[in-house]
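hey so i finally got around to running both of the ones u sent me last week. sorry it took forever, my laptop kept dying halfway thru and i had to restart like 3 times lol. anyway pasting them below in the order u listed, first the sequence line then the structure token line for each. didnt double check formatting much so if smth looks off just lmk and ill redo it

first one:
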Amino acid sequence: MPRYPKGGVTLHSELTDVSTPHVLADLESAVCSETEALELVLATIWRATLADWELNPATGTFVTPERLNDGETGQVASAAALDDYCEVNFGKVVVISRFRHFGRGENTNTNGRFKLEYKDADGVYHDWVSGIIPVIGTSWSEFDSSGGEVACQGIKLTCTTFDAASYRFG
């Protein structure tokens, strides 16, 4: 539940005396901390849905990147080398707070590593979660919420340690 600044906020349209300069005390109740501001912003942005995830096919240097978010866990998106990546554009700013991924039977060890980055509203990528290990076998990983809640317009999955037996996502 977002917390609003103490005393509430006066809307610009509600100001009646715009010709008289306001003293700092008049504005004090409209000021909030960065944490409170972030809570207010996140409260107005929609949480990401499956439809957001599947809206635009993934792109990037992965082998068949579009299979990452096509809704078919039987399809494979895989890295072929270090720094290969897959990115998904949500088409709008959404809030994400956790993720999970599907494994492949061809993954026979857990030596490969990946990271997730999120693209902010200005189009700049930031690290979100690193050290992601591909799942061995055809099953889902547990949900991971270690990166916290972020507002973003897309995400990017990048191979940070390539291993020929641990690089596939369903």
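and the second one:
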Amino acid sequence: MMALKFLAIFSCLIFVCSSQDPTQTPKRLHPALFFSNKPALPDYPGVAIDTGSVTLACVGGSQDNRRVHFKWYKDGALLKADSSPIIATIAGDLTINPSDYTRDDGFYRCLITDNTWSLLSNMAELQLAYTSGIKKNDVTMSGIQYQGWKYIYTGYKHSKYPKPTFIWKFNGRTLQESKRISISEDGNLYIAQLSLNDAGKYSFEMQLGSLRQQRESINLQVARSLQTTDVYGTVMLGPKDRRVRSKEEVTFECFATGW
């Protein structure tokens, strides 16, 4: 099943905020107003695991202790806290809860004002990385010995920036790509020339930054191939299990043993 974006079933959300020009400092339009930081994550620069909200910090004030107010602009448009329940400015911080990459990606600026003078901050870019999907547990798949097997995971969407890393594990151990095993850029797993030793539990993980989240658990069963061309073993010729008299016809049969 494909996850729906608007049902708040995002499995994880990581956000990265960076100053458009980290070397540039805000210019003062009035000596009494100041910024003590650039609009950024509280732990800028950094990556955080979202818990349903994204907060951009903006700290500033007035040197003559005047009361100041903060406003935020997104892509040049003023954000009004009272016009949307998901946006609020408290002590200069901008909180978006819940965040949505389809709406909240963009450039943000913080404005501080004492109702007489105003000071506009540098611009910061907010990009939301996301993965969404419905987690499935203990999905049973089957394959045939000596034939190929592939598992294409289509129950999720992920952001183009930053792109997640896909990790497959077999019975708890990370799978390494080889001539027989490959993992595509989209996280699909391909195994050629199945053997009975490939039967077991496969788990699928996505990694975004420091976050790892298990997305899938698959039990693979490998059946023996019944095709004679796929039987490996020894062949011997011999008579049927019966007594043979002199000058009688003797019939030989072919016995094949395989594994």
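quick thing i noticed on the 2nd:
Residues 101-104 form the longest helix (4 residues).
anyway thats it, ttyl
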